[in-house]
From TrEMBL:
<dbReference type="InterPro" id="IPR028094">
    <property type="entry name" value="RTC4_C"/>
</dbReference>
<comment type="function">
    <text>May be involved in a process influencing telomere capping.</text>
</comment>
<dbReference type="GO" id="GO:0005737">
    <property type="term" value="C:cytoplasm"/>
</dbReference>
<dbReference type="Pfam" id="PF14474">
    <property type="entry name" value="RTC4"/>
</dbReference>
<comment type="similarity">
    <text>Belongs to the RTC4 family.</text>
</comment>
<dbReference type="InterPro" id="IPR039024">
    <property type="entry name" value="RTC4"/>
</dbReference>
<protein>
    <recommendedName>
        <fullName>Restriction of telomere capping protein 4</fullName>
    </recommendedName>
</protein>
<keyword id="KW-0963">Cytoplasm</keyword>
<feature type="domain" description="Restriction of telomere capping protein 4 C-terminal">
    <location>
        <begin position="42"/>
        <end position="151"/>
    </location>
</feature>
<dbReference type="GO" id="GO:0005634">
    <property type="term" value="C:nucleus"/>
</dbReference>
<keyword id="KW-0539">Nucleus</keyword>
Length: 178
């Protein structure tokens, strides 16, 4: 895993203090996904959960949820937690058009579509690569990131806690914002 990370120039220690703000700065791009429904991750999730309204697939949204990659690429579990906090701030439940994302539930949409789009955007910017290349790195680096950057890592926990505090103190965007 480590040799692949080094050869791919994946940051071994991403700056978790900046993740929340970087995701918030990407609001317009993420709002486009939420508003237009155009996303490879969204199409894959809809296909997975909506195949003939497959009862088992639909119920799995309430269980463990992640049918795709979990985590946030090389940002790992810790980055994923910060990204989810930022997304809950940017996209409260009332701001998401449930018809547009059907058959997905709100949480599934955040966790399996917007969180992955946000992680891909971070990777794209970090490495100066195309969106398609960033998706490839995202997929290849998930296992590495989840092993390297666990959400209970004492060095990273303060950044996750800061993201949660920031969300609780701020005013979220509303539907009229996009």
């Amino acid at each position: 895993m480590l040799p692949k990370a080094i050869s791919g120039n994946w940051p071994l220690n991403p700056d978790f203090s900046l993740v929340f703000d970087r995701v918030c700065c990407d609001y317009l791009a993420l709002a486009t996904v939420a508003g237009s429904g155009v996303s490879d991750f969204l199409m894959a999730a809809k296909e997975h959960y909506g195949v003939a309204y497959n009862q088992d697939a639909m119920l799995s949204q309430y269980a463990d949820g992640c049918f795709l990659e979990s985590g946030a690429g090389y940002y790992g579990e810790a980055g994923y937690q910060i990204i989810i906090s930022a997304l809950r701030h940017l996209f409260p439940p009332q701001s998401v058009n449930l018809v547009q994302i059907h058959p997905l539930k709100y949480d599934t949409f955040l966790q399996e579509v917007l969180a992955h789009e946000a992680a891909v955007s971070l990777i794209e910017t970090d490495l100066g690569i195309s969106y398609a290349e960033a998706i490839k790195v995202f997929r290849e680096s998930c296992t590495f990131g989840n092993h390297m950057h666990k959400s209970d890592d004492p060095e990273i926990e303060p950044f996750i806690a800061a993201a949660v505090r920031q969300v609780s103190r701020s005013t979220p965007h509303t539907t009229s914002d996009f």
